[in-house]
Amino acid sequence: MTFTVILLVAFSIVLDVIGQLCFKLGLDRLPELEGGFRLNAFWGQVFNAPLLWCGIGAYTLEFFVWLEALSRAPLSLLFPAGALAYCGVVLAGKVVLGETVSRRRWLATLVITVGVMLVCAGHA
Q1: Proportion of the chain above pLDDT 70, given as a percent
Q2: Which of 10, 15, 20, 119 could form a disulfide with 80 if both were Cys (CB 3.0 to 4.6 A apart)?
Q3: Which letter does DSSP use for residue 2 in this model?
Q4: Which tens digits make up the pLDDT trace of 11-38?
Q5: Distance CA 75, CA 85 (A)
Q6: Which residues contact 9 (CB under 8 A, 6 or more apart)?
Q7: What pTM was computed for the model?
Q8: Residue ranges covered by each domain of the chain
């Protein structure tokens, strides 16, 4: 993997994590609806939530970064490397959102990381 591809994948992962954080924070800040779930009121809230739009923006930018990475390296290498976004989301959930992460989830995150390292080392 070239240095440029590594930077593109890393940027894609960061954008994915930012997008997920924006979605979670944006939804958590929406006011609760009285009288149960009302789809029209919910969508009105969603369209007026800046953090949700930031998440959409992060995903849009990530789409173009990902396309550039795909133009430079095999999908069989990039897609497993992109799985590191799952690890980033777990870490961001703990650090930014204060979520409780069990030992089992940390272990699974480590397994994903080791798996990505094995896939990437096979393409060296």
Answers
A1: 94
A2: 119
A3: -
A4: 999 999 999 999 999 988 888 777 666 6
A5: 16
A6: 1, 69, 78, 81, 82, 84
A7: 0.87
A8: 3-122
